[in-house]
Amino acid sequence: MSYLHLSIALIFVIIPIVLSKTLNLGLERDTIIAVVRSIIQLLAVGYVLKFVFDSENIIYILLMITIMIIAATQNARKKGVSITGITWKVAITLVVIEALTQSILLGFSITPPTAQYIIPISGMVIGNSMVLAILFLNRFTAEVETHQDETELILSLGGTPKQAIRTQLLTSIKSSMIPTIESQKTIGLVQLPGMMSGQIIAGANPIQAVQFQLLILFLLLTTASITSAMLGYLSYPSLFNKRMQMLKRCLAPPEV
C-alpha cells in the first residue's frame, strides 16, 4: 500500500465526521484528535519496532514491554481512582499476566524467543488485559456504589468484608469476562481476526495463520480470567478499614 492509497483511505475518517456534524453528536474534534494521534503513534512505533527487531537486544525488548505496561496502567487506573493504590494493583496484574504468558510460550518453545514474536504478542496480551481492567473497574465501582446499603448491612450483622462485597465482586469479574468469551464463540463465522487476516494477506499459509490466531485466542482467555480475578481480589480490601468498616471515599464516582 502506498501513501497515496492511505490518503484516499481517509474517506473512512471523513464519513464519521460528516455524520457526527449532521446529527450534532459533537464528536468531530475527538475523531480528528484520535486519527492524528493514531497516525503519529503508529508511525513512531513502526520505526521503533524496526530498530528493535533488527537489534534483537533483550534490553530493548524489556524496555518496550515496560513502556506498554506503564501506558496501559495509566489508562486503566482512571476507572478506579476511588480505590486506594489502584495504580500499583493494575501494574502488578499486568506484570503477572505478561510474565505468565511469556513463561509458558517461551518455556515450552511455543514461540521463538525473538523480538518479532515477543513484542507483538505482549502488546496483544497487555492491551487486552488493560481493556478488561477498565471493564472490571468501571463495573466494580458502580456495583459498590449501588449496593452500599446491602454491604453495610452485612458488615453490621458481623459479616467480613469479603462476605459483604462477594456478590458485587463476582458480578464484576463475570461481566468483564463475558465480552471475551462471547466474541470467541463467533470467531471465524462473524469476524475474521486481524492477526489471521493480516498473515493471509501477507501470503502466509491459511492453516498456519489459523494456528497462530488460535494461540492468541487461548492467551486472551487466560488474560480475561486472571486479569479480572486478580485485580478484583487485590482491590476489594482497599474498600474497608481495619475495623472492617466501608470507606466512604471508595463510593466516589470514577474519573471519566
Provide the descriptors you would attach to this structure in a database record:
mainly alpha; 2 domains; 256 residues
Q: How many independent structural domains?
A: 2
The gross shape turns out to be globular
Cα separation of the termini: 37 Å
Low-confidence stretches: none
Helix content: over 70%
Radius of gyration: 21 Å
- Per DSSP E runs of 2 or more residues, the count of β-strands stands at 0
Describe what this molecule looks like in 3D.
It is a single chain. The protein is mostly helical and 256 residues long. The protein is built from 10 helices and no strands. Helix 2 (11-22) packs antiparallel against helix 3 (28-55), helix 7 crosses helix 8 and helix 9 packs antiparallel against helix 10 (206-235). It is globular and about 65 Å long. The protein starts with a helix and ends in a 21-residue tail after the last helix. 25% of the residues are buried. The mean pLDDT is 85.
Helices, strands, pairings?
Blueprint: H1 3-8, H2 11-22, H3 28-55, H4 58-76, H5 86-107, H6 115-146, H7 148-156, H8 161-185, H9 194-201, H10 206-235
Helix pairs in contact: 2-3, 4-5, 4-6, 5-6, 5-10, 6-8, 6-10, 7-8, 8-10, 9-10
